[in-house]
Amino acid sequence: MNAPLKNDRFLRALRREPTDTTPIWVMRQAGRYLPEYRATRARAGSFMGLAQNPEFACEVTLQPLARFELDAAILFSDILTIPDAMGLGLSFAHGEGPQFAHPVRDAAAINKLAVPDMDGELRYVMDAVRLIRRELDGRVPLIGFSGSPWTLACYMVEGQGSKDFATLKAMCWNEPALAHQLLDTLARAVAAYLIAQAHAGAQALMVFDTWGGLLGPAPFREFSLRYMQRVVEALKADAVASTLPVILFSKGAGAHLAEMADTGCAALGVDWTIDLADARRAVAGKVALQGNLDPAILRASPEVIRREARAVLDSYGNHPGHVFNLGHGITPEVDPEHVKVLVDEVHSYGRALRSA
Ligand code: CP3
Protein backbone atom coordinates (compact mmCIF):
# COMPACT_ATOMS: atom_id res chain seq x y z
CA MET A 1 0.00 0.00 0.00
CA ASN A 2 1.22 3.47 -0.85
CA ALA A 3 1.22 6.18 1.81
CA PRO A 4 -1.63 8.76 1.83
CA LEU A 5 -0.86 12.02 0.03
CA LYS A 6 0.45 14.84 2.23
CA ASN A 7 0.41 17.62 -0.39
CA ASP A 8 -2.58 17.51 -2.75
CA ARG A 9 -2.38 21.11 -4.07
CA PHE A 10 -1.47 19.96 -7.56
CA LEU A 11 -4.35 17.45 -7.80
CA ARG A 12 -6.81 19.95 -6.30
CA ALA A 13 -5.80 22.62 -8.80
CA LEU A 14 -6.28 20.13 -11.65
CA ARG A 15 -9.81 19.55 -10.34
CA ARG A 16 -10.27 23.37 -10.18
CA GLU A 17 -10.78 23.23 -6.42
CA PRO A 18 -9.50 26.01 -4.11
CA THR A 19 -5.92 25.70 -2.81
CA ASP A 20 -3.92 27.61 -0.16
CA THR A 21 -1.46 28.72 -2.84
CA THR A 22 -0.64 27.98 -6.48
CA PRO A 23 1.06 24.62 -7.00
CA ILE A 24 4.22 24.53 -9.12
CA TRP A 25 6.37 21.93 -10.84
CA VAL A 26 8.83 22.45 -13.69
CA MET A 27 8.97 20.59 -17.00
CA ARG A 28 12.30 18.70 -17.14
CA GLN A 29 12.78 19.41 -13.43
CA ALA A 30 15.15 16.43 -13.24
CA GLY A 31 17.79 17.30 -15.79
CA ARG A 32 21.18 18.60 -16.74
CA TYR A 33 20.91 21.97 -14.91
CA LEU A 34 21.33 19.94 -11.68
CA PRO A 35 24.91 18.84 -10.88
CA GLU A 36 23.55 15.82 -8.98
CA TYR A 37 21.68 14.75 -12.16
CA ARG A 38 24.90 14.99 -14.18
CA ALA A 39 26.67 12.88 -11.55
CA THR A 40 24.03 10.11 -11.64
CA ARG A 41 23.97 10.21 -15.44
CA ALA A 42 27.76 9.77 -15.49
CA ARG A 43 27.42 6.71 -13.23
CA ALA A 44 24.68 5.31 -15.53
CA GLY A 45 26.90 5.79 -18.59
CA SER A 46 24.19 7.02 -20.97
CA PHE A 47 20.78 8.65 -20.96
CA MET A 48 19.02 5.36 -21.79
CA GLY A 49 21.15 3.56 -19.18
CA LEU A 50 19.74 6.06 -16.68
CA ALA A 51 16.13 5.82 -17.86
CA GLN A 52 16.10 2.01 -18.08
CA ASN A 53 17.41 1.44 -14.57
CA PRO A 54 14.54 1.92 -12.06
CA GLU A 55 16.92 2.75 -9.15
CA PHE A 56 18.66 5.48 -11.15
CA ALA A 57 15.36 6.76 -12.55
CA CYS A 58 13.95 6.96 -9.02
CA GLU A 59 17.04 8.73 -7.71
CA VAL A 60 16.94 11.48 -10.35
CA THR A 61 13.14 11.87 -10.07
CA LEU A 62 13.59 12.74 -6.39
CA GLN A 63 16.63 15.04 -6.81
CA PRO A 64 14.73 18.27 -7.58
CA LEU A 65 12.30 17.57 -4.71
CA ALA A 66 15.21 17.52 -2.26
CA ARG A 67 16.16 21.05 -3.32
CA PHE A 68 12.86 22.82 -4.02
CA GLU A 69 9.34 22.85 -2.55
CA LEU A 70 7.82 21.42 -5.71
CA ASP A 71 4.20 20.24 -5.61
CA ALA A 72 4.56 17.27 -7.98
CA ALA A 73 7.14 14.73 -9.09
CA ILE A 74 7.39 13.61 -12.71
CA LEU A 75 8.57 10.15 -13.65
CA PHE A 76 12.09 10.31 -15.03
CA SER A 77 11.92 8.75 -18.48
CA ASP A 78 11.49 9.98 -22.05
CA ILE A 79 8.72 10.16 -24.61
CA LEU A 80 10.83 8.09 -27.03
CA THR A 81 10.67 4.90 -24.92
CA ILE A 82 7.66 3.74 -26.98
CA PRO A 83 9.37 3.87 -30.40
CA ASP A 84 12.48 2.36 -28.81
CA ALA A 85 10.36 -0.55 -27.54
CA MET A 86 8.87 -0.86 -31.04
CA GLY A 87 12.36 -1.70 -32.27
CA LEU A 88 13.48 1.58 -33.85
CA GLY A 89 16.80 1.58 -31.99
CA LEU A 90 17.03 4.82 -29.98
CA SER A 91 20.31 6.46 -29.07
CA PHE A 92 21.36 9.88 -27.86
CA ALA A 93 24.64 11.04 -29.37
CA HIS A 94 26.56 13.04 -26.76
CA GLY A 95 25.30 16.62 -26.54
CA GLU A 96 22.97 16.00 -29.46
CA GLY A 97 19.35 15.00 -29.83
CA PRO A 98 17.77 11.58 -30.28
CA GLN A 99 18.61 9.28 -33.21
CA PHE A 100 16.74 6.23 -34.49
CA ALA A 101 18.72 3.49 -36.24
CA HIS A 102 15.53 2.37 -38.05
CA PRO A 103 13.18 5.23 -38.93
CA VAL A 104 9.77 4.22 -40.37
CA ARG A 105 9.13 5.80 -43.75
CA ASP A 106 7.15 3.29 -45.82
CA ALA A 107 4.24 0.86 -45.62
CA ALA A 108 6.54 -2.12 -45.01
CA ALA A 109 8.02 -0.51 -41.89
CA ILE A 110 4.69 0.85 -40.61
CA ASN A 111 2.90 -2.50 -41.14
CA LYS A 112 5.46 -4.15 -38.87
CA LEU A 113 4.82 -1.85 -35.90
CA ALA A 114 2.97 -3.33 -32.93
CA VAL A 115 1.93 -2.02 -29.53
CA PRO A 116 4.83 -2.93 -27.17
CA ASP A 117 4.30 -5.19 -24.17
CA MET A 118 3.94 -3.09 -21.03
CA ASP A 119 5.11 -6.06 -18.92
CA GLY A 120 7.91 -6.83 -21.39
CA GLU A 121 9.91 -4.20 -23.28
CA LEU A 122 8.44 -1.37 -21.20
CA ARG A 123 8.41 -3.09 -17.84
CA TYR A 124 11.34 -0.94 -16.68
CA VAL A 125 9.10 2.14 -16.87
CA MET A 126 6.40 0.52 -14.72
CA ASP A 127 9.05 -0.71 -12.25
CA ALA A 128 10.34 2.86 -11.98
CA VAL A 129 6.80 4.18 -11.34
CA ARG A 130 6.26 1.59 -8.55
CA LEU A 131 9.62 2.36 -6.94
CA ILE A 132 9.17 6.15 -7.13
CA ARG A 133 5.69 5.93 -5.57
CA ARG A 134 7.15 3.95 -2.69
CA GLU A 135 10.08 6.31 -2.18
CA LEU A 136 7.90 9.44 -2.45
CA ASP A 137 6.02 8.14 0.59
CA GLY A 138 3.05 10.42 -0.15
CA ARG A 139 5.05 13.66 -0.22
CA VAL A 140 3.64 14.89 -3.53
CA PRO A 141 1.77 13.21 -6.39
CA LEU A 142 3.61 11.45 -9.21
CA ILE A 143 2.96 12.43 -12.83
CA GLY A 144 3.25 9.75 -15.52
CA PHE A 145 3.58 10.82 -19.14
CA SER A 146 3.81 9.95 -22.80
CA GLY A 147 4.45 11.72 -26.06
CA SER A 148 1.38 12.34 -28.21
CA PRO A 149 0.87 10.08 -31.23
CA TRP A 150 1.70 13.02 -33.55
CA THR A 151 4.91 13.96 -31.72
CA LEU A 152 6.11 10.35 -31.56
CA ALA A 153 5.39 9.98 -35.29
CA CYS A 154 7.46 13.14 -35.96
CA TYR A 155 10.59 11.51 -34.50
CA MET A 156 9.87 8.02 -35.87
CA VAL A 157 9.50 9.16 -39.48
CA GLU A 158 12.27 11.78 -39.39
CA GLY A 159 14.59 9.43 -37.48
CA GLN A 160 15.94 12.34 -35.41
CA GLY A 161 15.08 15.84 -34.20
CA SER A 162 14.18 18.51 -36.73
CA LYS A 163 12.95 22.11 -36.92
CA ASP A 164 9.95 21.28 -39.10
CA PHE A 165 9.59 17.45 -39.28
CA ALA A 166 8.96 17.85 -43.00
CA THR A 167 9.26 14.10 -43.71
CA LEU A 168 6.14 13.25 -41.69
CA LYS A 169 4.33 16.33 -42.99
CA ALA A 170 5.07 15.23 -46.57
CA MET A 171 3.65 11.78 -45.71
CA CYS A 172 0.47 13.44 -44.42
CA TRP A 173 -0.08 15.04 -47.84
CA ASN A 174 1.29 12.29 -50.09
CA GLU A 175 0.14 9.14 -48.27
CA PRO A 176 -2.50 10.21 -45.73
CA ALA A 177 -3.76 6.65 -45.19
CA LEU A 178 -0.26 5.54 -44.22
CA ALA A 179 0.16 8.48 -41.82
CA HIS A 180 -3.20 7.62 -40.24
CA GLN A 181 -2.21 3.98 -39.90
CA LEU A 182 0.96 5.01 -38.04
CA LEU A 183 -0.97 7.44 -35.80
CA ASP A 184 -3.62 4.83 -35.06
CA THR A 185 -0.99 2.31 -33.91
CA LEU A 186 0.65 5.01 -31.81
CA ALA A 187 -2.63 6.08 -30.20
CA ARG A 188 -3.19 2.48 -29.08
CA ALA A 189 0.39 2.26 -27.78
CA VAL A 190 0.17 5.60 -25.93
CA ALA A 191 -3.15 4.63 -24.30
CA ALA A 192 -1.79 1.24 -23.18
CA TYR A 193 1.39 2.92 -21.88
CA LEU A 194 -0.50 5.52 -19.83
CA ILE A 195 -2.97 2.94 -18.51
CA ALA A 196 -0.03 0.76 -17.38
CA GLN A 197 1.56 3.77 -15.63
CA ALA A 198 -1.77 4.46 -13.87
CA HIS A 199 -1.93 0.85 -12.69
CA ALA A 200 1.69 1.06 -11.50
CA GLY A 201 0.86 4.10 -9.36
CA ALA A 202 1.01 7.32 -11.40
CA GLN A 203 -1.45 9.89 -9.97
CA ALA A 204 -1.82 12.23 -12.97
CA LEU A 205 -1.02 11.74 -16.65
CA MET A 206 0.46 14.22 -19.11
CA VAL A 207 0.62 13.99 -22.90
CA PHE A 208 3.46 15.97 -24.51
CA ASP A 209 2.42 17.11 -27.99
CA THR A 210 5.62 19.08 -28.46
CA TRP A 211 5.20 19.42 -32.23
CA GLY A 212 1.42 19.88 -32.58
CA GLY A 213 2.05 23.59 -33.19
CA LEU A 214 3.79 22.77 -36.49
CA LEU A 215 0.38 22.08 -38.02
CA GLY A 216 -2.23 24.47 -39.38
CA PRO A 217 -5.73 24.38 -37.85
CA ALA A 218 -7.29 21.66 -40.03
CA PRO A 219 -4.25 19.34 -40.06
CA PHE A 220 -3.85 19.85 -36.30
CA ARG A 221 -7.37 18.51 -35.85
CA GLU A 222 -6.87 15.65 -38.28
CA PHE A 223 -3.38 14.43 -37.33
CA SER A 224 -2.78 15.58 -33.75
CA LEU A 225 -5.96 16.39 -31.81
CA ARG A 226 -8.00 13.45 -33.12
CA TYR A 227 -5.46 10.96 -31.79
CA MET A 228 -5.06 12.68 -28.42
CA GLN A 229 -8.85 12.54 -28.17
CA ARG A 230 -8.70 8.77 -28.77
CA VAL A 231 -6.10 8.42 -26.03
CA VAL A 232 -8.28 10.37 -23.58
CA GLU A 233 -11.27 8.18 -24.49
CA ALA A 234 -9.27 4.99 -23.96
CA LEU A 235 -8.15 6.25 -20.54
CA LYS A 236 -11.77 7.01 -19.60
CA ALA A 237 -12.68 3.41 -20.40
CA ASP A 238 -10.16 2.02 -17.90
CA ALA A 239 -11.30 1.65 -14.27
CA VAL A 240 -8.03 2.98 -12.80
CA ALA A 241 -6.84 5.47 -15.45
CA SER A 242 -10.28 7.11 -15.59
CA THR A 243 -9.76 8.35 -12.01
CA LEU A 244 -6.57 10.28 -12.94
CA PRO A 245 -6.51 13.85 -14.30
CA VAL A 246 -5.06 14.11 -17.81
CA ILE A 247 -3.04 17.16 -18.94
CA LEU A 248 -2.64 17.78 -22.68
CA PHE A 249 0.22 20.02 -23.76
CA SER A 250 0.46 21.04 -27.40
CA LYS A 251 3.32 23.51 -27.73
CA GLY A 252 2.57 26.46 -29.96
CA ALA A 253 -1.10 25.54 -30.17
CA GLY A 254 -2.61 28.50 -28.32
CA ALA A 255 -5.09 28.90 -31.16
CA HIS A 256 -6.54 25.43 -30.50
CA LEU A 257 -7.23 25.63 -26.77
CA ALA A 258 -11.02 25.77 -27.07
CA GLU A 259 -11.15 22.55 -29.09
CA MET A 260 -8.60 20.85 -26.87
CA ALA A 261 -10.71 21.71 -23.80
CA ASP A 262 -13.53 19.62 -25.30
CA THR A 263 -11.53 16.37 -25.34
CA GLY A 264 -12.46 15.44 -21.78
CA CYS A 265 -9.00 16.17 -20.37
CA ALA A 266 -8.65 17.85 -16.95
CA ALA A 267 -6.10 20.49 -17.91
CA LEU A 268 -4.18 22.07 -20.78
CA GLY A 269 -0.53 23.02 -20.71
CA VAL A 270 0.16 26.37 -22.37
CA ASP A 271 3.37 27.95 -23.60
CA TRP A 272 4.35 31.60 -23.10
CA THR A 273 3.09 32.87 -26.46
CA ILE A 274 -0.43 33.25 -25.06
CA ASP A 275 -1.54 35.32 -22.08
CA LEU A 276 -3.17 33.15 -19.39
CA ALA A 277 -6.14 35.55 -19.19
CA ASP A 278 -6.85 34.89 -22.89
CA ALA A 279 -6.28 31.16 -22.41
CA ARG A 280 -8.78 31.17 -19.53
CA ARG A 281 -11.38 32.86 -21.72
CA ALA A 282 -10.73 30.34 -24.51
CA VAL A 283 -11.32 27.30 -22.30
CA ALA A 284 -14.36 28.86 -20.59
CA GLY A 285 -13.97 27.11 -17.23
CA LYS A 286 -13.93 23.60 -18.76
CA VAL A 287 -10.36 22.72 -17.76
CA ALA A 288 -7.50 23.85 -15.52
CA LEU A 289 -4.42 25.51 -17.07
CA GLN A 290 -0.75 24.70 -16.55
CA GLY A 291 2.00 27.18 -17.41
CA ASN A 292 3.38 29.43 -18.73
CA LEU A 293 6.61 31.25 -17.84
CA ASP A 294 9.11 31.54 -20.69
CA PRO A 295 11.98 29.21 -19.63
CA ALA A 296 14.50 31.81 -20.83
CA ILE A 297 13.43 34.05 -17.92
CA LEU A 298 15.24 31.65 -15.56
CA ARG A 299 18.46 33.03 -17.04
CA ALA A 300 17.56 36.53 -15.79
CA SER A 301 18.25 37.97 -12.32
CA PRO A 302 16.24 36.86 -9.25
CA GLU A 303 14.39 40.23 -9.26
CA VAL A 304 13.28 39.73 -12.86
CA ILE A 305 12.30 36.10 -12.17
CA ARG A 306 10.13 37.20 -9.23
CA ARG A 307 8.50 40.00 -11.22
CA GLU A 308 7.75 37.77 -14.21
CA ALA A 309 6.42 34.96 -11.98
CA ARG A 310 4.01 37.45 -10.39
CA ALA A 311 2.95 38.61 -13.85
CA VAL A 312 2.04 35.03 -14.80
CA LEU A 313 0.10 34.57 -11.54
CA ASP A 314 -1.70 37.90 -12.08
CA SER A 315 -2.60 37.00 -15.65
CA TYR A 316 -4.43 33.90 -14.38
CA GLY A 317 -5.85 35.87 -11.45
CA ASN A 318 -7.44 34.71 -8.21
CA HIS A 319 -9.37 31.74 -9.63
CA PRO A 320 -9.03 28.05 -8.94
CA GLY A 321 -7.45 25.81 -11.59
CA HIS A 322 -3.91 27.12 -12.14
CA VAL A 323 -0.80 24.94 -11.96
CA PHE A 324 2.30 27.08 -12.36
CA ASN A 325 4.95 25.73 -14.75
CA LEU A 326 7.29 26.89 -17.46
CA GLY A 327 5.92 27.09 -21.00
CA HIS A 328 8.47 24.44 -22.04
CA GLY A 329 11.32 22.46 -20.46
CA ILE A 330 14.03 24.02 -18.32
CA THR A 331 17.35 24.35 -20.15
CA PRO A 332 20.78 23.08 -18.99
CA GLU A 333 22.43 26.50 -18.36
CA VAL A 334 19.94 27.55 -15.66
CA ASP A 335 21.36 28.17 -12.17
CA PRO A 336 19.48 25.87 -9.74
CA GLU A 337 19.29 28.78 -7.26
CA HIS A 338 17.05 30.55 -9.78
CA VAL A 339 14.59 27.65 -9.66
CA LYS A 340 14.42 28.04 -5.89
CA VAL A 341 13.69 31.76 -6.35
CA LEU A 342 10.85 30.89 -8.74
CA VAL A 343 9.27 28.16 -6.60
CA ASP A 344 9.35 30.27 -3.44
CA GLU A 345 7.94 33.34 -5.20
CA VAL A 346 5.06 31.37 -6.74
CA HIS A 347 4.10 30.00 -3.34
CA SER A 348 4.36 33.30 -1.46
CA TYR A 349 2.68 35.44 -4.12
CA GLY A 350 0.06 32.72 -4.73
CA ARG A 351 -0.85 32.97 -1.04
CA ALA A 352 -1.01 36.78 -1.17
CA LEU A 353 -3.19 36.65 -4.28
CA ARG A 354 -5.76 34.52 -2.44
CA SER A 355 -6.04 36.87 0.54
CA ALA A 356 -6.11 40.10 -1.51
O1 CP3 B 1 10.29 16.53 -16.99
C1 CP3 B 1 11.06 15.70 -16.47
O2 CP3 B 1 11.94 15.98 -15.64
C2 CP3 B 1 10.83 14.23 -16.81
C3 CP3 B 1 11.70 13.66 -17.77
C4 CP3 B 1 11.55 13.99 -19.26
C5 CP3 B 1 12.66 13.91 -20.15
N1 CP3 B 1 12.20 14.09 -21.41
C6 CP3 B 1 14.03 13.63 -19.76
C7 CP3 B 1 15.13 13.93 -20.70
C8 CP3 B 1 10.41 14.28 -20.02
C9 CP3 B 1 9.00 14.53 -19.58
C10 CP3 B 1 10.84 14.34 -21.39
C11 CP3 B 1 9.92 14.58 -22.52
C12 CP3 B 1 10.46 14.72 -23.87
N2 CP3 B 1 11.51 14.07 -24.45
C13 CP3 B 1 9.86 15.52 -24.87
C14 CP3 B 1 8.61 16.31 -24.70
C15 CP3 B 1 8.80 17.53 -23.88
C16 CP3 B 1 9.49 18.61 -24.58
O3 CP3 B 1 10.62 18.95 -24.16
O4 CP3 B 1 8.91 19.16 -25.50
C17 CP3 B 1 10.62 15.38 -26.05
C18 CP3 B 1 10.38 16.07 -27.35
C19 CP3 B 1 11.65 14.45 -25.76
C20 CP3 B 1 12.65 13.91 -26.71
C21 CP3 B 1 14.02 14.20 -26.27
N3 CP3 B 1 14.63 13.61 -25.19
C22 CP3 B 1 14.94 15.10 -26.85
C23 CP3 B 1 14.66 15.97 -28.05
C24 CP3 B 1 16.11 15.02 -26.10
C25 CP3 B 1 17.41 15.68 -26.41
C26 CP3 B 1 17.41 17.12 -26.12
C27 CP3 B 1 17.99 17.39 -24.77
O5 CP3 B 1 17.40 18.14 -24.01
O6 CP3 B 1 19.10 16.87 -24.55
C28 CP3 B 1 15.88 14.12 -25.03
C29 CP3 B 1 16.83 13.75 -23.96
C30 CP3 B 1 16.39 13.98 -22.56
N4 CP3 B 1 15.18 13.61 -22.03
C31 CP3 B 1 17.17 14.56 -21.52
C32 CP3 B 1 16.39 14.53 -20.35
C33 CP3 B 1 16.77 14.98 -18.97
C34 CP3 B 1 18.60 15.05 -21.66
C35 CP3 B 1 19.47 13.86 -21.88
C36 CP3 B 1 20.81 13.92 -21.20
O7 CP3 B 1 20.89 13.76 -19.97
O8 CP3 B 1 21.80 14.08 -21.93
Descriptive account of the structure:
With 356 residues, the protein is an alpha/beta fold. It is built from 15 helices and nine strands. The chain has helices spanning 9-14, 35-44, 47-51, 54-67, 81-88, 107-111, 123-136, 149-158, 166-174, 176-200, 217-236, 257-260, 276-283, 302-316, 336-355; strands at residues 73-74, 90-92, 98-100, 142-147, 204-209, 246-250, 267-269, 288-293, 322-326. It has a seven-stranded parallel sheet. A two-stranded antiparallel ribbon has the order 2-3. α4 (54-67) packs parallel to α7 (123-136). The chain is globular. It starts with 8 loop residues before the first helix and ends with a helix. Coproporphyrinogen III binds next to loops. Residues 27-32, 41, 47, 74, 76-80, 92, 97-98, 145, 161, 208, 210, 329 line the site of coproporphyrinogen III (CP3).
What are the key terms here?
single chain, 356 residues, alpha/beta, 7-stranded parallel β-sheet, 15 helices, 49% helix, binds coproporphyrinogen III, EC 4.1.1.37, cytoplasm, lyase, decarboxylase, Uroporphyrinogen_deCOase
Compact summary:
With 356 residues, the chain is α/β, with parallel strands linked by helices.
